[in-house]
Amino acid sequence: MTLSHADADVGKAGMAGELEPWLAFNKGPGLLDEEGRQYVSAFPPADLMELTTTERTEIAFTEHGVTCSRALSAASPVPLNKFARILDFGCGVGRLARMFKGFSGEYVGVDVHQQSIEWMQGALPYVEAYQTTPRQPLPFPDNHFDCVVSISVFTHMNEADQRFYLSELKRVTKSGGTLLLTVHGYRALSRAVNEERIFQMMNTPREELELALTSLADGSGFHFYNQMAHLSSEAYEYGITFSNRNYLQRVWGEYFNVLNVVAGGIHDFQDIVVLEAR
After folding, report:
1. Mean per-residue pLDDT for 103-115?
2. What are the angstrom distances between the C-alpha of 80 and each of 2, 17, 20, 140, 159?
3. Are 258 and 185 in contact (CB under 8 A)?
């Protein structure tokens, strides 16, 4: 298959060009055409892809990256490729970062998982990737970033850790900057209760889901279940977290202006919380 001149131009431009043609290229010629593959980012090993997305194929990993990019772009008040400095907080093994090949600004990824960061450092030269330590300050100066993105991170934190990192993100984000952070809200909780596939994926007892329903409907608006999963350690409790809009307005509003909560914005599952630094 011969790559068309138009597709080649899209591939060469990458994130510096128009977003939608670039995302479509990643799912089309960049994935399926041998010539097109030279323009897209490398793929991580299957075991690292599975750790981030529960999927082991390049097709599924690309789909995750494209879907997340589209959703964040739709929620953002500024096109993603127009920011100057982006922090990908909890970047994993680059499902989102892969889409930023050709980005003209500074793209920084941080994660606590050593193997993921080591792979990104070797395979994605346009990303500044750093391994961080749980509950320790981020290695960046104050007011450094004008955008922060974070997918499937605050969905797994207890309240104390959320507050710590909200404070850190407030510190490193410029006034007026945009933050796009995902949470489990009513949509994710409803699907976990009613869909067996989602219930199995979340690995959370039904009684915990019932407690979460009560908390979101009548209680604090926040519920955390400690799973003691793959990233759990003495320094970090990894679990499943649910929060509602009122909680986000009340608690996250202490740190940022809460502009919007896009229900089910990621895969009709996670909510996207749109924040403005002040």
Report:
1. 97
2. 30, 11, 11, 21, 29
3. no
Structure tokens at 208: 């915990």
Burial of 207 from C-beta contacts in 10 A (0-12 / 13-18 / 19+): exposed
Q: 106 has which bridge partners? A: 85
Structure confidence by residue, pLDDT tens digits, 149-200: 999 999 999 999 999 999 999 999 999 999 999 999 999 999 999 999 999 9
CA gap 227, 230 in Å, rounded = 9
Phi, psi of 100 (to 5 degrees): -95, 15
For 46-61, what is each residue's pLDDT tens digit?
999 998 888 899 999 9
Please state, in angstroms and rounded to a whole number, the distance separating the CA atoms of residues 7 and 82: 22
Structural domains in the chain, sorted by start? 1-40 (no CATH), 45-276 (3.40.50.150)
Q: What pTM does this model have? A: 0.95
Residue 228: the pLDDT is: 73
Helix (H, G, I), strand (E, B) or coil at 79: coil
Q: What is the pLDDT of residue 2?
A: 79
Distance CA 9, CA 93 (A): 27
Tell me the pairing of strands 173-183 and 222-226: unpaired
C-alpha distance from residue 265 to each of 115, 176, 223 (Å): 29, 22, 20
Q: Decide: helix, strand or coil at residue 57.
A: coil
Q: Give the pLDDT mean for 109-124.
A: 97
